[in-house]
Amino acid sequence: MSNLDLKPTATLCSGDASAGPTHDLLTGRTVQLGESTQVRRLLPTLGRRMVGAWCFVDHYGPDDIADEPGMQVPPHPHLGLQTVSWLHDGEVLHRDSLGSLQTIRPRELGLMTSGRAISHSEESPREHPRLLHGAQLWVALPDAHRHTAPAFEHHPELPIVDIAGLHGTVILGSVDGAASPGTTYTPLVGVDLALTESTTPRLLPLEPEFEYAALAISGSADVDGVRLEPGSLLYLGCGRRQLPLLARTDATLLLLGGEPFEEQVLMWWNFVGRSSEEIVQAREDWEKGLRFGDVHGYDGARLRAPEMPAVGLKPRGRAR
């Protein structure tokens, strides 16, 4: 997934292990993605930069694309991160510079590790389902692994957990002993929770050393007493051993968590680096056709990189 902002800002992100339990309801902003898809961008936002190693969250749909091309994101580069494709409805065709060609369907994990450099495209297939609904997420790679070789994983089957009346699909990490096959480089978790309408809260066990956030995908639910509607993200902080969940209607939530990311990382456009010099070099390499490889088969030109800010990259803190 690409950040298509023509004037992306630089963001300096880091962890905060001292944060205790909290309720911080984050409001996303609408961003145009490709030709016909709008997303709600929830991370990074003015109030919060990261949740564990999760550093980017887009939620889109449900969109009726029966008579539309759907998602059309041209080839673009990534550096220093992992991308996670997660669908509730629809299909996305992934191509990358490794030669991967994979259709990702609902509740299948598409996991791309950019490592030192990769490029990819994402599009709705020519013949596609009527609805498109899902989330695209990034995970920042720690310094020890950010220069690893690029890779792509597709996991059509993921572990399912049933805990205290909650039905969950483990996307990354582990929940109640059920571990996702997806590769991770820091302690983190991502789980898709399906809740049936109820009158009493259900308790989800948590890791107290993790910080968490809950993204409402569909329906209406109370998360630790806070009402969430689709497209809203509630940051929960650290120090919790369980999380009360009450479904006002049948609902689905995406729970993201992990150990607070202790390193500072600089995010700009589709790159996660450590310095402005590194970001400038990555942009120059992409524009010159170096290092990131080629994506074959996409019907259209690749994305051009935005211009660098005239005053240089200006770092900003994790939360403000």
TrEMBL record:
The record's region (Disordered) falls at 1-21
Any idea which UniProt keywords this protein has? Iron, Metal-binding
InterPro entries on file: Pirin, Pirin_C_dom, Pirin_N_dom, RmlC-like_jellyroll, RmlC_Cupin_sf
What are the residue boundaries of the Pirin C-terminal domain, all occurrences included? 204-292
Do you know which SUPFAM superfamilies this protein is assigned to? Answer: RmlC-like cupins (SSF51182)
GO MF annotation terms: metal ion binding
Cofactor(s) annotated in UniProt: Fe cation
Domain Pirin N-terminal, first and last residues per copy: 38-139
Q: Where does Fe cation bind?
A: 76, 78, 120, 122
Give the protein family: Belongs to the pirin family.
- Designated name of the protein: Pirin family protein
From which organism does this entry originate? Kitasatospora acidiphila
